[in-house]
């Protein structure tokens, strides 16, 4: 990178131009909305299938936003330079958070009794060992709604604060960014843990997992890295090629390989601990998800999210190739959908396998397409690279590596 042919002394900020994918994304949003509505009248399962499809779909933009927040906050706190040219792209990947907020409000308004037994007065009575205990008092619709709304509001606020303060022009702005990053990490981890407990863990209110919050956070960061890889490959054809140079693509690929290993580890260790303990209150959750086709789906999930990226990107030369990074990113994103489907759908159809390419996939595609539209809007408004940041050109020129 020290070769003067490749050294940049000036950069004309690349712009987000119109894309042929935008009308396709709008069409997918419409298809997702139709699929959600059709579930109420056509699909087997009726209203519960419609709301479970929305829950699974909203987790995609939510996980991408949480992963983006965590990753950028950690690197801001550490003073990392390599992420500076890519930070606007990474922030755009998490721009779909408002869609998760809207879906959450829809669930609060009409979907709670169809998703959670504890929110259904008729089914609630036999769920808790002590109907007057602390857990029964905690798992009520009003508390769930207030907690979720508060956490999502905090996530939106932190996301905006981090985006506004991400450009560092002097020591004062550097200090503000570090303080924001510290606040983000202190708040994000417990907040996202509680949110995942409420949204996903409480689908089986009798099941307990001490690591479930961390499990979901790790999946969210992995999904974010996969989507970032895809975004960089796509934007590289839209004028970002001068910015997303091989050493930066290689860094993203390295993180993708590392996080694939972490995902494999956390998935294995939770299963092994519960399996060895062999306690009925815990094993039923896994038993429900390894029968009737769901077990094969999980094998495909782990293959796509862990094995494919690991094998493909272990090569140092391939790790910097856009096509390899794109394949690995797409594999991770597809595997993330299989993971979300595997986490949620067996709670509603434990004895009959529901394929992950049914109406749930159409709703999820609609929300993912909506996230893409919000990302494009974000990149048009804020640009593809941070304007006025003196760290930009040195990072593009890989001066931090010398």
Description:
- The chain is mainly α.
- The chain has one domain (21-385, 392-401).
- The protein is built from 16 helices and no strands.
- It has helices at residues 21-41, 46-78, 87-93, 97-115, 121-124, 134-138, 141-164, 171-199, 212-240, 246-277, 280-288, 294-313, 316-319, 322-344, 359-382, 392-396.
- Helix 7 (141-164) packs antiparallel against helix 8 (171-199), helix 8 (171-199) crosses helix 9 and helix 12 (294-313) packs antiparallel against helix 14.
- The N and C termini lie close together (9 Å).
- Residues 1-5 have low confidence and may be disordered.
Rg (C-alpha, Å): 22 Å
The count of β-strands is 0
What structural class is derived from the secondary structure elements? Answer: mainly alpha
Element order, helices and strands? Answer: HHHHHHHHHHHHHHHH
Shape: globular
* Portion in helices: over 70%
What fraction strand? under 5%
Distance between the first and last residues' Cα: 9 Å
Q: Number of folding domains?
A: 1
User: What value does the average pLDDT take?
Assistant: 88
- Tell me the number of helical segments per DSSP (H or I, 4 or more residues long): 16
For the largest beta-sheet, the strand count, sense and barrel status come to: none
Residue stretches low in confidence (pLDDT < 50, at least 5 long) are 1-5
Oligomer: single chain
């Amino acid at each position: 990178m020290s070769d003067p042919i490749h050294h940049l002394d000036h950069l004309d900020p690349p712009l987000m131009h119109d894309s042929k994918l935008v009308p396709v994304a709008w069409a997918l949003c419409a298809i997702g909305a139709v699929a959600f509505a059709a579930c109420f009248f056509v699909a087997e399962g009726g209203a519960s299938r419609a709301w479970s499809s929305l829950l699974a779909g909203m987790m995609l933009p939510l996980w991408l936003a949480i992963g983006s927040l965590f990753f950028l906050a950690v690197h801001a706190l550490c003073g990392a330079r390599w992420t500076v040219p890519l930070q606007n792209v990474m922030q755009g990947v998490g721009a779909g958070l408002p869609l998760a907020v809207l879906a959450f409000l829809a669930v609060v308004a009409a979907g709670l009794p169809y998703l959670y037994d504890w929110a259904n007065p008729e089914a609630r009575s036999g769920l808790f060992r002590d109907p007057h205990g602390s857990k029964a008092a905690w798992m009520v619709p009003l508390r769930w709604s207030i907690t979720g709304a508060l956490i999502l509001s905090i996530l939106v606020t932190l996301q905006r604060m981090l985006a506004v303060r991400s450009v560092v022009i002097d020591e004062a702005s550097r200090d503000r960014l570090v303080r924001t990053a510290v606040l983000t990490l202190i708040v994000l981890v417990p907040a996202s843990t509680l949110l995942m407990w409420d949204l996903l863990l409480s689908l089986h209110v009798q099941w307990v997992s001490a690591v479930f919050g961390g499990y979901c956070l790790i999946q969210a960061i992995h999904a974010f890295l996969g989507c970032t890889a895809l975004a960089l490959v796509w934007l590289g054809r839209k004028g970002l090629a001068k910015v997303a140079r091989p050493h930066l693509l290689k860094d993203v690929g390295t993180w993708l390989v590392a996080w694939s290993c972490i995902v494999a580890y956390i998935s294995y260790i939770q299963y092994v601990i519960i399996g060895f303990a062999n306690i009925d209150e815990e094993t039923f959750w896994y038993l429900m998800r390894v029968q009737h086709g769901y077990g094969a789906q999980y094998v495909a999930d782990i293959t796509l999210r862990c094995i494919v990226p690991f094998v493909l990107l272990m090569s140092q030369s391939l790790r910097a190739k856009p096509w390899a990074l794109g394949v690995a990113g797409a594999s991770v994103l597809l595997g993330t959908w299989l993971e979300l489907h595997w986490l949620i759908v067996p709670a509603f159809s434990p004895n009959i396998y529901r394929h992950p390419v049914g109406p749930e996939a159409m709703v999820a595609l609609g929300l993912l397409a909506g996230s893409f539209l919000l990302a494009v809007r974000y990149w048009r408004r804020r640009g593809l690279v941070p304007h006025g940041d003196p760290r930009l050109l040195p990072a593009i020129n890989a001066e931090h590596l010398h």
